[in-house]
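Example S7 (structure tokens).
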């Protein structure tokens, strides 16, 4: 995802500017609809993040388990590299 997917200030400012300048309701409605679409897109991105279903403690336990697995694999690789060539 892009950082811009979560920047809404510019859109809100545009809507406020349209309201203050007395633009047509249709134009303001379109701007609000665009902002709503951007909110939906950001919400969808957040829902698709991996691991969102886990709470902090579960995520930390998974991280600890994966780090231990990584350390084990590093040790195996180090042992393998220390073997003499055939």
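Recovered sequence:
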């Amino acid at each position: 995802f892009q950082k811009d997917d979560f920047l809404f200030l510019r859109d809100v400012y545009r809507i406020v500017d349209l309201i203050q300048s007395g633009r047509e309701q249709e134009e303001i409605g379109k701007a609000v609809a665009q902002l709503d679409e951007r909110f939906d897109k950001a919400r969808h991105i957040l829902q698709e993040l991996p691991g969102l279903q886990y709470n902090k403690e579960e995520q930390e336990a998974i991280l600890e388990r994966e780090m231990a697995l990584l350390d084990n694999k590093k040790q195996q690789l180090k042992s393998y590299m220390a073997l003499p060539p055939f």
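Notes on this example. The mean pLDDT is 92.
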